[in-house]
Amino acid sequence: MITGFEHLHSTLRWVLLAVLLWTVFTSLAGRFKGGAFGAKQGKLGLIAMILMHSQLVLGLVLYLDRMGDMSRFFTMEHPMIMVLAVVAGTLGHSMTKRASGDEAKWRKQSTWMTIALLLVLTGIPWPFLAGFEAYGWI
Ligand code: HEM
Predict the structure, then answer these.
(1) What domains appear along the chain, each with residue ranges and CATH number?
(2) pTM passes above 0.70
(3) Which atom of ligand 1 is nearest to the CA of 56?
(4) Using one digit for the tens of pLDDT, what is the confidence trace for 39-49?
């Protein structure tokens, strides 16, 4: 069961990255080109947020299961950075929803989802970073 959760948490990262990248790309394009902020664009942000919340729940289960038996990176940096990412993504969805007017919606979504994306990219234990001692995720 827990191995399944681990695989799901690992695989969902790619789905989240794809949706988040697409949300950031389209919202930045909308912000600079102008135009109507449609329901489809709002849904994209909603899906990105749901994927982040799913990762949060799965991550918490893994965290509780492995407590006391993880590297510093997985005990501290990874959960802290990812919780901040989830907060940014949640704000990205809710503030966009509440904003009035297309321009404000594009601005809120592009700003917060870009922050969320940068945090997710920073918090992922990329294999090529394993060699850096300061990163210490092994
Ligand atoms: C929101 C975005 C998140 C993403 C994209 C993400 C991504 C990842 C990835 C790629 C791994 C490595 C899996 C592998 O070995 O292949 C991982 C491991 C892990 N994550 Fe996350 N994570 C997120 C959030 C969280 C949160 C919020 C927590 C804790 C509260 C968490 C706890 C863990 C734990 C405990 C591990 C496993 C460490 C081990 O293998 O022993 N994750 N995560």
Answers:
(1) 2-129 (1.20.120)
(2) yes
(3) 27
(4) 999 999 999 99
